[in-house]
Specification:
- By secondary structure, the chain is mainly β.
- The chain has one helix and ten strands; from the N terminus they run αββββββββββ.
- A hairpin with a 2-residue loop joins strand 7 and strand 8 (103-109).
Length: 144
């Protein structure tokens, strides 16, 4: 049953897309990014997130090409806290993802979690780094 839930969990289309800017000089665990999510009993055009429906989360990170680390561990929390590693460089340490001038952008699927909203109402998806991070400009959360 769990395998069927996981296989059918992700939609083909984006249901939720929200971006939050990050202080690129220093992003600390005290600087939690908040992504507001409104949930209805059934999906509607003004609120496409549906109660008790499984969603997959993708995070898109926009960062400077001079990013000093190969990855950054972050916490993602809705009801449960998940530690996610965002791989931002290839095996040789060069910035990975799409290059746009001095910036890079990379999307990472959060594979270790399916997000369910048990009740209607307003939720907050929270994201913060495990330790201090820098050179990250924004994070976009997508639910599918």
């Amino acid at each position: 049953m769990t395998a069927m839930l996981l296989l059918g969990a992700c939609n083909d289309g984006t249901i939720y897309l929200h971006s939050v800017d990050v202080d690129s000089a220093e992003w600390t665990s005290a600087d939690t990014l908040i992504f507001p999510v409104h949930v209805e009993p059934s999906a509607k055009t003004y609120s496409p997130i549906e109660r008790n429906f499984p969603y997959c989360l993708t995070l898109t990170v926009r960062y400077e090409r001079a990013y000093p680390l190969t990855d950054v561990p972050i916490h993602v929390s809705l009801a449960d806290d998940h530690l996610v590693t965002l791989p931002l460089a290839d095996d040789d340490g060069f910035p990975d993802g799409e290059h746009h001038g001095t910036l890079c952008q990379k999307s990472v699927e959060v594979n270790n979690a399916i997000f369910l909203f048990p009740d209607s109402g307003d939720y907050q998806l929270k994201i913060w780094p495990d330790s201090t991070a820098s050179h990250i400009l924004s994070i976009t959360a997508t639910l599918e």
